[in-house]
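Q: What residues go here?
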């Protein structure tokens, strides 16, 4: 049984997930009180709901969140994000308590690359360096030489000598984008994110016809035929910065809809339109990210559960690839947003 399933079972036995929160409680006040009393820091990804972003101590992309997790002097890290992000924080700060409001907040991209299958795949390519997108399991990180995020991926690939063959996992779309940008012929694992694979080319073309002055911006986890149309491709932080510095006043945004909150806050006079997906509900929410709620955030801080527990061998073998990424990023002055 995986560490995730074990921990989840223990919590369900205790009935923790069924606890009702007193509806008269001022959750924002309570969460702020718990932060002070427990010396806890709340790190939130841009894809969280607006109310969670607004109460977080730090909101950022995957690189910025890892840099904060490595540097914090808080006793407790509360990770408002998904499982692989909280695992990364635990690997970087193994002596701290790391909490995730809902342990079921996983990631379809991380799930698309099971470590035992990847171990066999890797054997077919001796002499290859493995670069893994940070959106992967802790166990996959034990099979990885260097991690990367969407902010530093291009830089990480360019830091590897040109004659060194590379396997890139698990995101095939980011992999193809990097192959195109660097001209490197990398071996790509065939994984993808369920949110970024859903955008409809046809609907985006029609939307652009209705908004001829709008810029179309996209995250590199989107498929190549979507990225080809984009005026700008970048990480969540890259997209946010672009909308701040660019002169346009209207943007069609192809990534998870949570980022629109910070875009709107930073540029209240601009209009942000979520790119339409190829489904009936017309929403770009990540079902994993959106499992976290203010109530669960409060409960996890009050009871200090669910806690991320990793076997020592995973921390020992998995951390080096994250440290390498942070070192290369620091030397290049790359800081996540
Ligand atoms: P970044 O945070 O690197 O932009 O990646 C987004 C993402 O997929 C997080 O799940
Ligand atoms: Fe994973 Fe995609 Fe959700 Fe990010 S948006 S957590 S990559 S499923």
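A:
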């Amino acid at each position: 049984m995986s560490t995730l399933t074990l921990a989840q079972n223990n919590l369900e036995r205790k009935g923790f997930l069924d606890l009702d929160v007193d509806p008269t409680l001022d959750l924002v006040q309570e969460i702020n009180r718990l932060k002070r009393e427990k010396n806890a820091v709340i790190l939130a990804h841009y894809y969280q709901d607006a109310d969670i972003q607004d109460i977080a101590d730090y909101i950022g992309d995957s690189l910025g969140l890892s840099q904060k997790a490595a540097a914090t002097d808080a006793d407790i890290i509360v990770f408002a994000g998904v499982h692989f992000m909280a695992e990364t924080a635990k690997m970087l700060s193994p002596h701290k308590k790391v909490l995730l409001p809902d342990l079921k907040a996983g990631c379809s991209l991380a799930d698309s690359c099971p470590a035992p299958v990847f171990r066999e795949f890797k054997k077919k390519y001796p002499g290859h360096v493995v670069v893994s997108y940070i959106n992967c399991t802790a166990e996959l990180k034990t099979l990885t030489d260097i991690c990367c995020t969407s902010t530093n991926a291009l830089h990480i690939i360019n830091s590897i000598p040109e004659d060194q063959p590379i396997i890139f996992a698990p995101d095939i779309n980011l992999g193809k984008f990097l192959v195109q940008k660097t001209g490197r012929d990398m071996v790509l694992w065939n994984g993808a994110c369920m949110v970024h694979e859903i955008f409809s080319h046809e609907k985006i073309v029609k939307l652009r016809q209705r908004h001829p002055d709008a810029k179309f911006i996209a995250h590199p986890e989107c498929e190549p035929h979507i990225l080809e149309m984009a005026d700008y491709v970048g990480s969540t932080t890259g997209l946010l910065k672009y909308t701040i510095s660019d002169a346009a006043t209207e943007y069609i945004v192809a990534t998870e809809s949570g980022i629109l909150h910070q875009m709107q806050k930073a540029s209240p006079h601009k209009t942000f339109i979520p790119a339409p997906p190829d489904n009936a509900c017309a929403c770009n929410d990540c079902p994993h990210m959106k499992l976290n709620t203010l109530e669960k955030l409060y409960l996890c801080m009050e009871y200090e559960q669910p806690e991320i527990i990793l076997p020592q061998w995973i921390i020992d073998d998995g951390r080096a690839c994250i440290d390498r990424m942070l070192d290369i990023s620091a030397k290049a002055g790359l800081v996540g947003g």
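A: Context that may help when evaluating the design: The chain has three domains: 3-107+288-306, 109-192+318-331, 201-274. The domain at 3-107+288-306 is CATH 3.40.50.10800 (Rossmann fold).
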